[in-house]
Design brief:
Strand order of the largest sheet: 2-3-4-1-5-8-7-6
Order of helices and strands: EHEEEEHEEE
Strand content: 35-45%
Largest sheet: 8 strands, mixed
Helix content: 10-25%
Distance between the termini: 22 Å
Shape: globular
Number of helices: 2
Structural class: alpha+beta
């Protein structure tokens, strides 16, 4: 195995159909307003975790929340997990600010997210 260890799960994205309703629930749950509040993404930081709400996530193929493993080298980790049997669902791409994300599925179809901050 390469030295492409993970830095743990730090980000969980939740697909939502009604952003305002979801924002009210997550604001109450976390006891704080979102740090990022836009029409395409609402993000909270709670206890070192990033909790994101993705409106229209279902239309983007998100059928449930996706946990993102933070990695220092997303290309190396993608190569490692696909060699071990994972299937790329969404290739690595920049979502802004130099943040790269990708998703893979394990042999049972569970979606795993990978995230690299540059």
């Amino acid at each position: 195995m390469s030295d492409s260890s993970t830095q743990g799960i730090k980000t969980v994205l939740h697909p939502v159909s009604d952003l305002e309703a979801a924002k009210a629930v997550y604001t109450a749950l976390l006891g704080m307003p979102p740090q990022t509040d836009s029409s395409y993404y609402v993000g909270y930081e709670a206890a070192g975790q990033q909790i994101g709400l993705v409106p229209g996530g279902a239309a983007q193929g998100m059928s449930s929340p996706v946990a993102y493993w933070h990695v220092p080298d997303i290309a190396a980790k993608l190569a490692e997990v696909t060699a071990a049997g994972a299937t790329v669902k969404e290739a690595a791409h920049d979502v802004g600010g130099g943040r790269l994300v990708a998703t893979v599925t394990d042999p049972d179809g569970n979606v795993l997210g990978l995230l690299q901050d540059r």
